[in-house]
TrEMBL record, chain A:
Residues 11-173 form the Pyruvate/ketoisovalerate oxidoreductase catalytic domain. It comes from the Bacteria. It comes from Desulfonema magnum. The keyword Transmembrane does not apply. Keywords: Oxidoreductase. InterPro entries: 2-oxoglutarate_synth_KorC (IPR052554), Pyrv/ketoisovalerate_OxRed_cat (IPR019752), Pyrv_flavodox_OxRed_cen (IPR002869). This is 2-oxoglutarate synthase subunit KorC.
TrEMBL record, chain B:
The lineage of its organism: Bacteria, Pseudomonadati, Thermodesulfobacteriota, Desulfobacteria, Desulfobacterales. Residues 253-347 form the Pyruvate:ferredoxin oxidoreductase core domain. NCBIfam families: PRK07119.1. Keywords: Oxidoreductase. It comes from Desulfonema magnum. GO terms for molecular function: oxidoreductase activity. Signal peptide: none annotated. The gene is korA1. Gene3D superfamilies: 3.40.50.920, 3.40.50.970. Residues 14-195 form the Pyruvate flavodoxin/ferredoxin oxidoreductase pyrimidine binding domain. The keyword Oxidoreductase applies. The keyword Transferase does not apply. This is 2-oxoglutarate synthase subunit KorA.
Length: 178, 358
Protein backbone atom coordinates (compact mmCIF):
# COMPACT_ATOMS: atom_id res chain seq x y z
CA UNK A 1 0.00 0.00 0.00
CA UNK A 2 1.20 3.50 -0.84
CA UNK A 3 0.51 6.58 1.28
CA UNK A 4 1.44 10.16 0.50
CA UNK A 5 1.80 13.08 2.88
CA UNK A 6 2.08 16.67 1.79
CA UNK A 7 3.66 19.20 4.14
CA UNK A 8 2.97 22.81 3.23
CA UNK A 9 3.53 26.25 4.72
CA UNK A 10 5.80 29.28 4.64
CA UNK A 11 9.47 28.96 3.79
CA UNK A 12 11.25 28.91 7.15
CA UNK A 13 8.58 26.91 9.02
CA UNK A 14 10.62 23.73 8.75
CA UNK A 15 8.36 22.17 6.13
CA UNK A 16 11.08 20.37 4.19
CA UNK A 17 12.68 19.17 7.42
CA UNK A 18 9.40 17.69 8.73
CA UNK A 19 9.10 15.70 5.53
CA UNK A 20 12.69 14.57 5.71
CA UNK A 21 12.30 13.32 9.28
CA UNK A 22 9.14 11.41 8.39
CA UNK A 23 10.89 9.88 5.37
CA UNK A 24 13.82 8.90 7.56
CA UNK A 25 11.57 7.19 10.13
CA UNK A 26 9.72 5.35 7.36
CA UNK A 27 13.03 4.17 5.91
CA UNK A 28 14.02 2.86 9.35
CA UNK A 29 10.73 0.99 9.54
CA UNK A 30 11.60 -0.78 6.30
CA UNK A 31 9.39 1.08 3.83
CA UNK A 32 10.31 2.39 0.41
CA UNK A 33 10.29 6.18 0.56
CA UNK A 34 10.65 9.19 -1.68
CA UNK A 35 10.85 12.82 -0.55
CA UNK A 36 9.94 15.27 -3.27
CA UNK A 37 10.41 18.98 -2.61
CA UNK A 38 8.76 21.84 -4.37
CA UNK A 39 11.60 23.66 -5.92
CA UNK A 40 11.35 26.80 -7.91
CA UNK A 41 12.42 30.40 -7.56
CA UNK A 42 11.59 30.10 -3.82
CA UNK A 43 12.54 32.56 -1.09
CA UNK A 44 12.31 32.86 2.67
CA UNK A 45 8.75 33.75 3.61
CA UNK A 46 7.40 32.37 0.31
CA UNK A 47 5.48 29.11 0.11
CA UNK A 48 7.23 25.79 0.56
CA UNK A 49 5.91 22.29 0.29
CA UNK A 50 7.13 18.77 -0.03
CA UNK A 51 5.58 15.36 -0.50
CA UNK A 52 6.66 12.18 1.22
CA UNK A 53 5.67 8.90 -0.42
CA UNK A 54 5.75 5.81 1.80
CA UNK A 55 5.13 2.41 0.27
CA UNK A 56 5.65 -1.29 0.87
CA UNK A 57 6.75 -1.73 -2.74
CA UNK A 58 8.96 0.12 -5.19
CA UNK A 59 7.63 3.66 -5.76
CA UNK A 60 6.49 4.50 -9.27
CA UNK A 61 5.43 8.03 -10.06
CA UNK A 62 7.04 10.64 -7.81
CA UNK A 63 4.52 13.13 -9.14
CA UNK A 64 1.63 13.18 -6.66
CA UNK A 65 -1.38 15.27 -7.61
CA UNK A 66 -3.67 13.92 -4.89
CA UNK A 67 -1.92 13.13 -1.60
CA UNK A 68 -3.66 11.02 1.01
CA UNK A 69 -2.77 13.42 3.85
CA UNK A 70 -2.00 17.10 4.25
CA UNK A 71 -0.19 18.97 7.01
CA UNK A 72 -1.01 22.64 6.43
CA UNK A 73 1.02 25.13 8.42
CA UNK A 74 -0.47 28.32 6.97
CA UNK A 75 -3.67 29.53 5.37
CA UNK A 76 -2.56 29.74 1.72
CA UNK A 77 -1.40 26.11 1.92
CA UNK A 78 -4.71 24.94 3.32
CA UNK A 79 -6.68 26.84 0.70
CA UNK A 80 -4.51 25.55 -2.09
CA UNK A 81 -4.13 21.90 -1.13
CA UNK A 82 -7.18 20.92 0.98
CA UNK A 83 -9.31 20.36 -2.15
CA UNK A 84 -6.85 17.81 -3.63
CA UNK A 85 -6.52 15.57 -0.56
CA UNK A 86 -7.94 12.07 -1.12
CA UNK A 87 -11.15 11.13 0.72
CA UNK A 88 -10.56 9.50 4.13
CA UNK A 89 -7.18 11.18 4.48
CA UNK A 90 -6.10 13.44 7.31
CA UNK A 91 -5.85 17.22 7.08
CA UNK A 92 -3.87 18.67 9.97
CA UNK A 93 -4.18 22.42 10.18
CA UNK A 94 -2.18 24.83 12.28
CA UNK A 95 -5.03 26.78 13.90
CA UNK A 96 -2.57 29.28 15.45
CA UNK A 97 -2.17 30.76 11.98
CA UNK A 98 -5.25 29.48 10.15
CA UNK A 99 -8.60 30.99 11.16
CA UNK A 100 -10.61 28.89 8.66
CA UNK A 101 -11.29 25.16 8.23
CA UNK A 102 -10.75 22.84 5.29
CA UNK A 103 -14.39 22.65 4.29
CA UNK A 104 -14.04 18.91 3.67
CA UNK A 105 -16.42 16.51 5.41
CA UNK A 106 -14.86 13.38 3.91
CA UNK A 107 -11.51 13.69 5.68
CA UNK A 108 -10.27 13.50 9.26
CA UNK A 109 -9.67 17.14 10.13
CA UNK A 110 -7.16 17.55 12.92
CA UNK A 111 -7.07 21.10 14.32
CA UNK A 112 -3.96 21.82 16.36
CA UNK A 113 -2.76 25.24 17.63
CA UNK A 114 0.72 24.20 16.61
CA UNK A 115 2.51 27.53 16.98
CA UNK A 116 0.87 28.33 20.34
CA UNK A 117 2.03 24.98 21.72
CA UNK A 118 5.55 25.59 20.43
CA UNK A 119 5.66 29.09 21.98
CA UNK A 120 4.51 27.62 25.32
CA UNK A 121 7.40 25.20 25.08
CA UNK A 122 9.80 28.07 24.60
CA UNK A 123 10.44 28.24 20.86
CA UNK A 124 8.15 28.78 17.92
CA UNK A 125 10.80 26.98 15.89
CA UNK A 126 9.53 23.69 17.35
CA UNK A 127 6.19 24.16 15.50
CA UNK A 128 7.07 21.73 12.74
CA UNK A 129 7.90 18.96 15.23
CA UNK A 130 4.65 19.53 17.15
CA UNK A 131 2.74 19.20 13.87
CA UNK A 132 4.70 16.18 12.72
CA UNK A 133 4.17 14.38 16.03
CA UNK A 134 0.45 15.16 16.04
CA UNK A 135 0.11 13.94 12.48
CA UNK A 136 2.00 10.69 13.08
CA UNK A 137 0.15 10.02 16.34
CA UNK A 138 -3.16 10.37 14.51
CA UNK A 139 -2.27 8.57 11.28
CA UNK A 140 0.09 5.94 12.76
CA UNK A 141 1.82 6.14 9.40
CA UNK A 142 5.13 5.22 11.07
CA UNK A 143 6.01 3.97 14.53
CA UNK A 144 6.05 6.91 16.98
CA UNK A 145 9.22 5.69 18.72
CA UNK A 146 11.05 5.43 15.38
CA UNK A 147 9.94 8.97 14.63
CA UNK A 148 11.42 10.10 17.95
CA UNK A 149 14.70 8.44 17.02
CA UNK A 150 14.65 10.15 13.62
CA UNK A 151 14.14 13.52 15.31
CA UNK A 152 17.03 12.85 17.70
CA UNK A 153 19.26 11.89 14.81
CA UNK A 154 18.30 14.99 12.87
CA UNK A 155 19.24 17.17 15.84
CA UNK A 156 22.35 15.16 16.73
CA UNK A 157 24.55 18.13 15.93
CA UNK A 158 22.44 20.42 18.14
CA UNK A 159 22.00 18.21 21.24
CA UNK A 160 20.82 21.15 23.37
CA UNK A 161 17.63 21.25 21.34
CA UNK A 162 16.75 17.58 21.78
CA UNK A 163 14.88 17.92 25.12
CA UNK A 164 12.77 20.71 23.61
CA UNK A 165 12.03 18.64 20.51
CA UNK A 166 11.09 15.61 22.63
CA UNK A 167 8.72 17.80 24.62
CA UNK A 168 7.29 19.04 21.32
CA UNK A 169 6.77 15.41 20.27
CA UNK A 170 4.80 14.64 23.44
CA UNK A 171 2.67 17.76 23.19
CA UNK A 172 1.95 16.97 19.56
CA UNK A 173 0.94 13.44 20.45
CA UNK A 174 -1.42 14.70 23.19
CA UNK A 175 -2.95 17.26 20.83
CA UNK A 176 -3.76 14.48 18.36
CA UNK A 177 -5.51 12.45 21.05
CA UNK A 178 -7.43 15.37 22.55
CA UNK B 1 27.14 1.00 5.07
CA UNK B 2 23.34 0.68 5.18
CA UNK B 3 20.78 2.67 3.29
CA UNK B 4 20.83 6.41 3.77
CA UNK B 5 18.33 9.02 2.69
CA UNK B 6 19.96 11.32 0.19
CA UNK B 7 19.12 13.92 -2.41
CA UNK B 8 19.96 12.86 -5.96
CA UNK B 9 22.39 15.75 -6.36
CA UNK B 10 24.32 14.89 -3.21
CA UNK B 11 24.33 11.21 -4.14
CA UNK B 12 25.94 12.09 -7.48
CA UNK B 13 28.80 13.78 -5.65
CA UNK B 14 29.34 10.90 -3.25
CA UNK B 15 29.10 8.29 -6.03
CA UNK B 16 31.83 10.03 -8.03
CA UNK B 17 34.15 9.96 -5.02
CA UNK B 18 33.40 6.27 -4.45
CA UNK B 19 34.21 5.72 -8.12
CA UNK B 20 37.67 7.08 -7.45
CA UNK B 21 37.15 10.48 -9.06
CA UNK B 22 38.82 13.14 -6.94
CA UNK B 23 38.54 16.07 -9.34
CA UNK B 24 35.35 18.07 -9.73
CA UNK B 25 35.29 21.29 -11.73
CA UNK B 26 31.97 23.06 -12.18
CA UNK B 27 29.92 26.20 -12.33
CA UNK B 28 26.66 26.30 -10.31
CA UNK B 29 23.23 26.28 -11.94
CA UNK B 30 19.77 25.24 -10.73
CA UNK B 31 18.59 22.48 -10.38
CA UNK B 32 21.90 20.79 -9.60
CA UNK B 33 23.88 23.30 -7.53
CA UNK B 34 23.73 20.96 -4.52
CA UNK B 35 26.34 18.76 -6.22
CA UNK B 36 28.82 21.62 -6.02
CA UNK B 37 27.69 22.51 -2.50
CA UNK B 38 28.22 18.91 -1.39
CA UNK B 39 31.56 18.44 -3.10
CA UNK B 40 32.95 21.80 -1.94
CA UNK B 41 32.76 20.27 1.54
CA UNK B 42 33.49 16.64 0.69
CA UNK B 43 36.37 16.86 -1.80
CA UNK B 44 38.81 18.44 0.67
CA UNK B 45 37.93 15.68 3.17
CA UNK B 46 39.15 13.00 0.78
CA UNK B 47 42.11 14.96 -0.55
CA UNK B 48 40.34 15.78 -3.80
CA UNK B 49 40.02 18.95 -5.82
CA UNK B 50 36.91 21.11 -5.90
CA UNK B 51 37.18 23.92 -8.38
CA UNK B 52 34.53 26.47 -9.33
CA UNK B 53 35.43 27.80 -12.75
CA UNK B 54 34.62 31.29 -13.97
CA UNK B 55 32.18 29.90 -16.53
CA UNK B 56 31.01 26.64 -18.04
CA UNK B 57 33.13 27.35 -21.13
CA UNK B 58 36.23 27.51 -18.95
CA UNK B 59 35.18 24.45 -16.96
CA UNK B 60 34.96 22.32 -20.10
CA UNK B 61 38.58 23.10 -20.97
CA UNK B 62 39.75 22.57 -17.38
CA UNK B 63 38.20 19.10 -17.62
CA UNK B 64 39.93 18.57 -20.97
CA UNK B 65 43.30 19.57 -19.50
CA UNK B 66 43.04 17.45 -16.37
CA UNK B 67 41.80 14.44 -18.30
CA UNK B 68 44.57 14.79 -20.90
CA UNK B 69 47.00 14.49 -17.97
CA UNK B 70 45.37 11.21 -17.01
CA UNK B 71 43.29 12.45 -14.07
CA UNK B 72 39.81 11.06 -13.45
CA UNK B 73 37.60 14.15 -13.61
CA UNK B 74 33.93 15.07 -13.85
CA UNK B 75 31.47 17.93 -13.87
CA UNK B 76 27.77 18.52 -13.38
CA UNK B 77 25.60 21.17 -14.92
CA UNK B 78 22.15 21.82 -16.29
CA UNK B 79 20.94 22.48 -19.81
CA UNK B 80 22.17 26.04 -20.57
CA UNK B 81 25.46 25.17 -18.86
CA UNK B 82 25.87 22.07 -21.02
CA UNK B 83 25.23 24.21 -24.10
CA UNK B 84 28.12 26.43 -23.05
CA UNK B 85 30.32 23.39 -22.50
CA UNK B 86 29.42 21.80 -25.81
CA UNK B 87 32.34 23.23 -27.76
CA UNK B 88 34.69 21.75 -25.18
CA UNK B 89 32.81 18.45 -25.18
CA UNK B 90 33.46 18.16 -28.92
CA UNK B 91 37.21 18.72 -28.29
CA UNK B 92 37.17 16.20 -25.43
CA UNK B 93 35.46 13.63 -27.65
CA UNK B 94 37.80 14.37 -30.56
CA UNK B 95 40.87 14.02 -28.35
CA UNK B 96 39.37 10.87 -26.75
CA UNK B 97 39.42 12.02 -23.15
CA UNK B 98 37.38 10.00 -20.63
CA UNK B 99 35.54 12.87 -18.92
CA UNK B 100 32.19 12.28 -17.19
CA UNK B 101 29.48 14.92 -17.64
CA UNK B 102 26.23 15.02 -15.69
CA UNK B 103 23.33 17.01 -17.10
CA UNK B 104 20.40 17.52 -14.71
CA UNK B 105 18.06 18.86 -17.35
CA UNK B 106 15.84 21.88 -16.87
CA UNK B 107 13.23 23.20 -19.27
CA UNK B 108 14.37 25.05 -22.39
CA UNK B 109 15.05 26.38 -24.94
CA UNK B 110 17.03 29.45 -23.94
CA UNK B 111 16.88 30.24 -20.26
CA UNK B 112 13.63 28.27 -20.14
CA UNK B 113 12.76 27.34 -16.58
CA UNK B 114 14.24 25.37 -13.72
CA UNK B 115 11.74 22.50 -13.47
CA UNK B 116 12.26 18.90 -14.71
CA UNK B 117 12.51 18.30 -18.44
CA UNK B 118 13.94 15.83 -20.95
CA UNK B 119 14.40 18.46 -23.63
CA UNK B 120 18.13 17.77 -24.04
CA UNK B 121 17.74 14.30 -25.54
CA UNK B 122 18.90 15.44 -28.99
CA UNK B 123 21.74 17.48 -27.52
CA UNK B 124 23.01 14.50 -25.53
CA UNK B 125 22.55 11.73 -28.09
CA UNK B 126 23.03 13.47 -31.43
CA UNK B 127 25.74 16.00 -30.74
CA UNK B 128 25.46 19.40 -29.15
CA UNK B 129 28.95 20.26 -30.22
CA UNK B 130 30.34 20.08 -33.75
CA UNK B 131 31.70 17.15 -35.70
CA UNK B 132 31.10 13.42 -35.82
CA UNK B 133 31.15 12.36 -32.20
CA UNK B 134 28.95 10.50 -29.78
CA UNK B 135 28.67 10.45 -26.02
CA UNK B 136 27.77 7.29 -24.18
CA UNK B 137 24.57 8.51 -22.49
CA UNK B 138 22.92 6.91 -19.47
CA UNK B 139 19.55 7.92 -18.02
CA UNK B 140 18.78 6.95 -14.40
CA UNK B 141 15.23 6.66 -13.02
CA UNK B 142 15.94 6.71 -9.29
CA UNK B 143 18.52 8.06 -6.88
CA UNK B 144 19.96 4.57 -6.39
CA UNK B 145 20.28 4.05 -10.11
CA UNK B 146 21.92 7.46 -10.41
CA UNK B 147 24.59 6.30 -7.97
CA UNK B 148 25.11 3.08 -9.91
CA UNK B 149 25.35 4.88 -13.24
CA UNK B 150 27.77 7.52 -11.97
CA UNK B 151 29.97 4.72 -10.64
CA UNK B 152 29.70 2.88 -13.95
CA UNK B 153 30.40 6.03 -15.97
CA UNK B 154 34.09 6.33 -15.05
CA UNK B 155 35.16 2.79 -16.05
CA UNK B 156 33.05 3.07 -19.22
CA UNK B 157 34.65 6.41 -20.11
CA UNK B 158 38.07 4.83 -19.64
CA UNK B 159 37.13 1.65 -21.50
CA UNK B 160 36.25 3.68 -24.60
CA UNK B 161 38.43 6.74 -23.97
CA UNK B 162 35.26 8.66 -24.62
CA UNK B 163 33.18 11.15 -22.64
CA UNK B 164 30.15 9.69 -20.87
CA UNK B 165 27.06 11.69 -19.99
CA UNK B 166 24.54 11.00 -17.23
CA UNK B 167 21.25 12.53 -18.30
CA UNK B 168 18.91 13.18 -15.40
CA UNK B 169 16.11 15.65 -14.89
CA UNK B 170 15.43 18.14 -12.12
CA UNK B 171 13.42 15.62 -10.12
CA UNK B 172 16.24 13.08 -10.06
CA UNK B 173 18.48 15.81 -8.68
CA UNK B 174 16.07 17.22 -6.10
CA UNK B 175 14.33 14.09 -4.86
CA UNK B 176 15.52 12.23 -1.74
CA UNK B 177 15.42 8.44 -1.80
CA UNK B 178 17.21 5.70 0.12
CA UNK B 179 20.59 4.87 -1.38
CA UNK B 180 23.33 2.42 -0.67
CA UNK B 181 26.99 2.98 -1.57
CA UNK B 182 29.75 0.44 -1.81
CA UNK B 183 32.05 0.73 1.20
CA UNK B 184 35.33 1.13 -0.58
CA UNK B 185 36.71 3.71 -2.92
CA UNK B 186 37.63 2.48 -6.34
CA UNK B 187 41.41 2.56 -6.44
CA UNK B 188 42.54 0.56 -9.45
CA UNK B 189 44.70 2.60 -11.82
CA UNK B 190 43.44 3.91 -15.10
CA UNK B 191 44.90 2.91 -18.47
CA UNK B 192 46.36 6.41 -18.68
CA UNK B 193 49.96 5.39 -19.39
CA UNK B 194 48.81 4.19 -22.80
CA UNK B 195 47.59 7.58 -23.94
CA UNK B 196 47.74 10.40 -21.40
CA UNK B 197 50.35 13.17 -21.21
CA UNK B 198 51.18 12.24 -17.65
CA UNK B 199 54.96 12.57 -17.84
CA UNK B 200 57.66 10.14 -18.94
CA UNK B 201 58.92 9.28 -15.46
CA UNK B 202 56.80 6.20 -14.85
CA UNK B 203 56.86 4.92 -18.40
CA UNK B 204 58.90 1.83 -19.21
CA UNK B 205 59.24 2.45 -22.95
CA UNK B 206 60.09 5.83 -24.38
CA UNK B 207 56.76 6.22 -26.14
CA UNK B 208 55.54 9.81 -26.27
CA UNK B 209 51.81 10.40 -25.87
CA UNK B 210 50.00 13.17 -27.70
CA UNK B 211 46.43 14.22 -26.87
CA UNK B 212 44.87 16.25 -29.68
CA UNK B 213 41.88 16.69 -31.94
CA UNK B 214 43.66 18.52 -34.79
CA UNK B 215 44.29 16.48 -37.97
CA UNK B 216 44.93 18.75 -40.95
CA UNK B 217 45.68 15.91 -43.30
CA UNK B 218 42.36 14.72 -44.75
CA UNK B 219 43.34 11.06 -44.79
CA UNK B 220 44.48 11.21 -41.19
CA UNK B 221 41.29 12.96 -40.13
CA UNK B 222 39.19 10.40 -41.97
CA UNK B 223 41.13 7.60 -40.28
CA UNK B 224 40.63 9.30 -36.92
CA UNK B 225 36.89 9.51 -37.53
CA UNK B 226 36.81 5.85 -38.56
CA UNK B 227 38.54 4.99 -35.29
CA UNK B 228 35.93 6.97 -33.36
CA UNK B 229 33.14 5.33 -35.33
CA UNK B 230 34.51 1.90 -34.48
CA UNK B 231 34.25 2.82 -30.79
CA UNK B 232 30.64 3.89 -31.17
CA UNK B 233 29.84 0.64 -32.98
CA UNK B 234 31.52 -1.28 -30.18
CA UNK B 235 29.33 0.56 -27.63
CA UNK B 236 26.29 -0.67 -29.57
CA UNK B 237 27.58 -4.24 -29.31
CA UNK B 238 28.71 -4.22 -25.70
CA UNK B 239 27.01 -1.56 -23.63
CA UNK B 240 23.33 -1.26 -24.50
CA UNK B 241 21.27 -1.21 -21.32
CA UNK B 242 17.50 -1.24 -20.89
CA UNK B 243 14.80 -2.52 -18.56
CA UNK B 244 11.63 -4.23 -19.79
CA UNK B 245 8.46 -3.87 -17.71
CA UNK B 246 5.34 -6.03 -18.00
CA UNK B 247 6.55 -7.35 -21.35
CA UNK B 248 5.88 -11.00 -20.46
CA UNK B 249 2.17 -10.28 -21.06
CA UNK B 250 0.12 -9.98 -24.25
CA UNK B 251 0.36 -6.23 -24.13
CA UNK B 252 -1.73 -4.16 -26.54
CA UNK B 253 0.43 -1.06 -26.31
CA UNK B 254 4.17 -0.70 -25.84
CA UNK B 255 5.48 2.40 -24.05
CA UNK B 256 9.04 3.63 -24.52
CA UNK B 257 10.04 5.98 -21.73
CA UNK B 258 13.11 6.83 -19.67
CA UNK B 259 14.14 8.57 -16.45
CA UNK B 260 11.49 10.10 -14.17
CA UNK B 261 8.91 9.83 -16.96
CA UNK B 262 9.27 6.03 -16.97
CA UNK B 263 8.30 5.89 -13.29
CA UNK B 264 5.09 7.75 -13.98
CA UNK B 265 4.46 5.30 -16.83
CA UNK B 266 5.11 2.35 -14.51
CA UNK B 267 2.36 3.53 -12.16
CA UNK B 268 0.03 4.03 -15.15
CA UNK B 269 0.84 0.50 -16.38
CA UNK B 270 0.09 -0.98 -12.93
CA UNK B 271 -3.24 0.86 -12.77
CA UNK B 272 -4.22 -0.17 -16.31
CA UNK B 273 -3.32 -3.77 -15.52
CA UNK B 274 -5.76 -3.64 -12.58
CA UNK B 275 -8.39 -2.46 -15.08
CA UNK B 276 -7.60 -5.40 -17.36
CA UNK B 277 -5.53 -3.64 -20.02
CA UNK B 278 -1.99 -4.93 -20.49
CA UNK B 279 0.68 -2.41 -21.45
CA UNK B 280 4.37 -3.16 -21.80
CA UNK B 281 7.32 -0.83 -21.48
CA UNK B 282 10.92 -0.74 -22.56
CA UNK B 283 12.90 1.75 -20.50
CA UNK B 284 16.19 2.66 -22.19
CA UNK B 285 18.90 2.99 -19.54
CA UNK B 286 21.41 3.94 -22.22
CA UNK B 287 20.12 6.53 -24.70
CA UNK B 288 23.25 6.11 -26.77
CA UNK B 289 23.76 3.29 -27.53
CA UNK B 290 19.98 2.99 -27.93
CA UNK B 291 18.27 -0.38 -27.27
CA UNK B 292 17.33 -0.73 -30.93
CA UNK B 293 16.84 -4.46 -31.12
CA UNK B 294 14.93 -4.71 -27.82
CA UNK B 295 12.48 -2.02 -28.94
CA UNK B 296 12.08 -3.53 -32.40
CA UNK B 297 11.46 -7.00 -31.03
CA UNK B 298 9.03 -5.80 -28.36
CA UNK B 299 7.12 -3.69 -30.90
CA UNK B 300 6.54 -6.53 -33.35
CA UNK B 301 5.04 -8.87 -30.76
CA UNK B 302 1.73 -10.05 -32.21
CA UNK B 303 -0.45 -8.62 -29.44
CA UNK B 304 1.14 -5.17 -29.73
CA UNK B 305 -0.96 -2.69 -31.73
CA UNK B 306 0.94 0.52 -31.15
CA UNK B 307 4.11 1.99 -29.71
CA UNK B 308 4.04 5.27 -27.77
CA UNK B 309 7.13 7.25 -26.88
CA UNK B 310 6.36 9.21 -23.71
CA UNK B 311 8.77 12.02 -22.95
CA UNK B 312 9.10 15.28 -21.05
CA UNK B 313 9.93 16.87 -24.39
CA UNK B 314 8.14 17.74 -27.60
CA UNK B 315 9.01 14.48 -29.35
CA UNK B 316 12.73 13.79 -29.51
CA UNK B 317 13.27 10.16 -28.54
CA UNK B 318 10.26 9.24 -30.69
CA UNK B 319 12.49 9.72 -33.77
CA UNK B 320 14.78 6.96 -32.54
CA UNK B 321 11.80 4.78 -31.65
CA UNK B 322 10.42 5.20 -35.19
CA UNK B 323 13.81 4.18 -36.55
CA UNK B 324 13.77 1.00 -34.44
CA UNK B 325 10.18 0.01 -35.22
CA UNK B 326 10.84 0.40 -38.97
CA UNK B 327 7.21 1.17 -39.79
CA UNK B 328 6.00 -2.22 -38.59
CA UNK B 329 3.68 -0.67 -35.98
CA UNK B 330 2.23 2.83 -35.62
CA UNK B 331 4.53 4.97 -33.47
CA UNK B 332 3.05 7.84 -31.49
CA UNK B 333 4.41 10.47 -29.15
CA UNK B 334 3.02 11.97 -25.99
CA UNK B 335 4.75 14.51 -23.80
CA UNK B 336 4.81 17.79 -21.96
CA UNK B 337 7.46 20.41 -21.32
CA UNK B 338 8.33 23.09 -18.88
CA UNK B 339 8.20 21.06 -15.69
CA UNK B 340 4.56 20.06 -15.91
CA UNK B 341 5.32 16.34 -15.65
CA UNK B 342 2.45 14.23 -17.04
CA UNK B 343 0.58 12.33 -14.30
CA UNK B 344 -0.22 8.60 -14.32
CA UNK B 345 -3.87 9.52 -15.03
CA UNK B 346 -2.87 11.42 -18.17
CA UNK B 347 -0.76 8.51 -19.39
CA UNK B 348 -3.65 6.13 -18.73
CA UNK B 349 -5.94 8.30 -20.86
CA UNK B 350 -3.41 8.42 -23.68
CA UNK B 351 -3.13 4.62 -23.70
CA UNK B 352 -6.86 4.02 -23.38
CA UNK B 353 -7.52 6.32 -26.32
CA UNK B 354 -5.16 4.27 -28.41
CA UNK B 355 -6.93 1.09 -27.53
CA UNK B 356 -10.26 2.63 -28.60
CA UNK B 357 -8.87 3.70 -31.94
CA UNK B 358 -7.35 0.36 -32.87
Amino acid sequence: MQREVMFAGFGGQGILLSGKILAHAALEEGFEVAWIPSYGPEMRGGTAYCTVVISDKSIGSPIIKNPLHLVAMNRPSLEKFAPVVKPNGIILLNSSLIPIRSGRDDVDELVVPVADIAIELGSIKASNIVALAAFVARSKIVDFELLKEAVKEEFAKKPKLIPLEMEAMERGRKAAQG
Amino acid sequence: MGKVLMKGNEAIGEAAIRAGCLNYFAYPITPQSEVAEYLSRRMPEVGGMFLQGESEVAVAYMLFGASACGERVFTTSSSPGISLMSEGISYVAGAQCPVVFVNIIRGGPGLGGILPSQGDYFQATKGGGHGDYRLLVMAPASVQETVEMVMMAFPLAEKYRNPVMILGDGLIGQMMEPVEFPDHLRTEPTNKDDWATNGMDTRKDNKQNLVKSLYLDPTQLNDHNLLLKAKYERMKQEDVRYEPYNTDTDYKVLIISYGTMSRVCRTAIDNLKAEGLEVGMIRPQTLFPFPEKAIHDAAIKESCKAVISIEMSMGQMVEDVERCVQGKRPVEWYGKCGGDVPTPEEIMDVVRNWKLET
